[in-house]
Design a protein that fits this description.
Elements: H1 2-8, H2 12-32, H3 36-39, E1 45-49, E2 52-55, H4 56-74, H5 80-85, H6 88-109, H7 115-123, H8 137-146, H9 151-171, H10 179-190, E3 192-200, H11 202-205, H12 213-222, E4 232-240, H13 242-245, H14 253-267, E5 272-280, H15 283-294, H16 299-305, H17 310-313, E6 314-319, H18 325-331, E7 343-345, E8 348-358, H19 365-397, H20 402-408, E9 414-419, H21 440-444, E10 456-458, E11 461-471, H22 482-510, H23 515-521, E12 526-532, H24 543-549, E13 557-562, E14 567-577, H25 586-615, E15 617-619, H26 621-628
Antiparallel strand pairs: 1-2, 1-15, 3-12, 3-14, 4-9, 4-11, 5-6, 5-8, 7-8, 10-11, 13-14
Helix pairs in contact: 4-6, 4-26, 6-9, 6-25, 7-9, 14-19
């Protein structure tokens, strides 16, 4: 729709019509009270913290970015319903409000961060380093674009993050966990238990006769919602990304070698030398000191006379470029073990000694050719992606569907006849032709047929999509799902029988029976698991059994279902060991570090909560529901 409006207003007639339309809209805003848009906190604001407003569009961007990140981690799209079930919507809102509260406090305290400091933070980020290990501007642009950032927005966000760290770092400084807490948690983590157990599965449940038609029909009616057909959507999409377009094998060796030669010095490993250095105010003092060093005095001892520490004298392993130009030339011309003549540098007269030489390694084209070709291909593909993006937007602005636009541009559109919110087809299996990490399904379930949807950012490129048809959710008939219903009914029957048999076995054991005798009576065998901790995963012991064992007293008997009730395990705790606490052990040190972080996070959370209360926080629940899909 927005593309159509822009296209319509490109001539004088369109501009006249659009002016009239906008005038009517502005008047209607005033009549119906929608002027909140211009006055402050209103329908376009999700939350307000002090003077800071979190707009609906801003929160939508943050929430969408977070959903996409988690979808990439899961390897499949996360639907709005799933996100709300996980509480992700509330978590993102709380995090956004907390960050805004810290921003307000940083502004109140007058905290700041220079452009140069932010520049250094970004340039030192390993995510933005190229093949040679240096900051790569093209990689920087590609990475932030893949996450939906412009350079201006990313720099502004990093500035905010830096100021927040100033505040939270001060609040959490110096926190130490009590010794009693460390001791209790160490014993809790390192306590060991041993059990003997018996598995009861379908073999112990006995014969399950087929259900009568009446019993199956009754069971289906009671569990009808479990067999309901979900809503399906028919969608079409086209992907334009460097990964899709760029094929590194298409880059010639000639082009790759040209770039290799340009970067050869940076791609190789430079020579490094372990150097000791002393700096003097003039050449005479330097020469006198050199004579003492040649006579057997060490750099460290001479440094102590001058009030210097060992670290002030010993520069460590350094490259030539890390030194003053004159000092570097002299130091890298010396043989190992020799003391230089006085060297006039920018900061004074130096004397250096080379203790160790690590030869440099020249870059090998054969080893780096693949990376270089991929980099060239990706850069070429970015240019083509930008060109295709503009052409695709023009086609969409002209009213073309995704399929028609793709055909005109020589691209391949993917059509999925039916997919549910979880990304599965009518056969219950995940749809195979959706690229991993692409959340086009969840996006498609937030729109409708005939809507001109905005493109999705994906792997440095874009995805356009259309919803072609919607098949509403419906109740299935018993005939459609008879096999599934009978299988579920059988599982429930097995679970019921196993629970009864396990309960009977536990009662006999509590009355003095032996586990070996009870196991033999039902044709099962006794297994054991020894010396496991709470977080361990002993072979052949499900996690639910481990958890249950730590809730059970020594020599006591218990049961726990596993595999959805299709298997029940009866066990006895045979031993409990509480090891002593060794404060010097690595495990205890790691625990202390973990507690330090947890206590710091708790302290910071309390501080932020107090800020939010003092500053004043208001949430627009209707706008929040609109963004997260809770009102659909």
């Amino acid at each position: 729709m927005l593309r159509g409006m822009r296209k319509a207003s490109s001539n004088w007639l369109g501009k006249t019509i659009m002016a009239v339309v906008m005038g009517v809209l502005i008047v209607s805003f005033g009549i119906w009270g929608i002027a909140d848009i211009f006055r402050g906190f209103g329908q376009s604001t999700v939350a307000k913290i002090g003077r800071t407003e979190i707009s609906l569009n801003e929160f939508r961007q943050i929430y969408t970015d977070r959903l996409q990140q988690i979808s990439r981690q899961f390897g499949r799209p996360l639907t709005p319903d799933q996100a709300r079930a996980f509480g992700l919507d509330r978590q993102v809102l709380q995090q956004t409000i907390a960050e805004a509260a810290l921003d307000e406090e940083a502004r109140r305290l007058g905290l700041g961060q220079s452009d140069e400091q932010i520049r250094q933070v970004i340039m030192n980020d390993p995510n933005f380093k190229g093949v040679g290990g240096n900051f790569d501007a093209n990689r920087f642009q590609a990475v932030i674009r893949n996450f939906g950032y412009t350079e201006q927005r990313y720099v502004a966000e990093q500035r905010k993050v830096s100021l927040r760290r100033q505040l939270t770092g001060t609040i959490g400084a110096g926190i130490e966990p009590p010794k009693a807490m460390i001791d209790v948690l160490t014993r809790f983590q390192n306590e060991q238990r041993s059990i003997e157990f018996v598995r009861l599965d379908a073999a112990q449940a006995g014969t399950i006769d087929a259900p009568s038609p009446e019993a199956l029909a009754a069971y289906f009616e009671d569990h009808k919602v479990q067999f309901r057909a979900p809503e399906y959507r028919k969608i079409a999409f086209v992907v334009i990304s460097p990964e899709e377009i760029g094929k590194w094998s298409e880059v010639s060796d000639e082009d790759a070698k040209k770039l290799f030669e340009q970067r050869k010095d940076r791609l190789g490993t430079p020579e490094k030398r372990k150097i000791q250095q002393l700096v003097f105010p003039n050449a005479a003092e330097a020469q006198a000191a050199r004579e003492r060093l040649v006579g057997g005095m060490s750099f460290e001892d001479l440094g102590k006379e001058r009030g210097l520490t060992a670290s002030d004298v010993d520069l460590g392993l350094v490259t030539k470029s890390a030194l003053d130009a004159a000092v570097g030339d002299a130091a890298f011309a010396l043989p190992a073990g020799e003391i230089s003549q006085p060297i006039q540098g920018a900061l004074g007269t130096s004397i250096v000694k080379v203790d160790k030489i690590e030869p440099g390694v020249e870059a090998d084209y054969a080893k780096l050719a693949g990376d270089i070709k991929r980099e060239i291909a990706t850069e070429r593909a970015r240019v083509k992606v930008a060109d295709l993006r503009d052409k695709m937007e023009d086609e969409r602005g002209g009213g073309s569907s995704v399929i028609d636009a793709a055909q005109k541009l020589g691209l391949t559109a993917v059509t999925i006849d039916a997919v549910d919110r979880s990304g599965r087809g009518p056969n219950g299996q995940p749809v195979a032709n959706i690229p991993q990490g692409l959340d086009v399904v969840s996006q498609a379930f937030n729109t409708d047929v005939g809507v001109d949807n905005d493109a999705i950012s994906f792997k440095g490129g874009y995805v356009w999509y259309d919803v072609l048809a919607i098949t509403p959710s419906r109740d299935r008939s018993l005939d459609e799902v008879r096999d599934q219903v009978e299988a579920r009914w059988r599982q429930d029957q097995i679970a019921t029988k196993l629970k009864a048999k396990a309960t009977e076995m536990v009662q006999k054991l509590e009355a003095g029976g032996k586990l070996a005798d009870e196991a033999a009576a039902i044709g099962a065998k006794v297994e054991t698991a020894t010396g496991f901790k709470r977080d361990d995963s002993p072979a052949s012991v499900p996690g639910t059994v481990v958890a249950a064992a730590f809730r059970t007293a020594k020599d006591a008997v218990a049961q726990t279902p596993v595999s959805g009730g299709s298997e029940v395990i009866v066990f006895r705790v045979t031993d409990i060991v509480e090891p002593p606490v060794d404060a010097a052990s690595e495990a205890v040190k790691k625990l202390k570090d973990s507690l330090d972080r947890a206590l710091t996070e708790e302290q910071v959370a309390s501080y932020v909560n107090k800020l939010e209360t003092d500053i004043g926080t208001t949430i627009n629940q209707a706008a929040f529901a609109q963004v997260t899909g809770a009102n659909q």
